[in-house]
Specification:
about 0% strand; mainly alpha
Amino acid sequence: MAFRLLRFIPLLFFVSIFTRVVYAHCPLCTVGAGAAAVGAKWLGVSNIIVGVFIGAFAFALGFWMNRLIRKNFFRYQPLGIAFFSYFLTIIPLMPIMQGYSSFYLSFFGEYG
């Protein structure tokens, strides 16, 4: 079994050398993140999890808005517009999600 896995290491090496950089956010993925947030909230998923979907939607939307602007007016414009879109999406939602102010990250233990 281990020998079979070792045969794929050269293949992975060659694939990693000849690949190009890919930015995988398409309109379908952007709408999918927004729909996942709405669907998760409708199913009763915690606001923290819904916040992850909303954050992904906001950043993807910001990157798509940057593509509408053909010229770069300042350095790091795509990232700046993505953060601007993120904050314009998250700040109005903060009063709705006031009870959740901390960031829970646990490598061990239960959720919730």
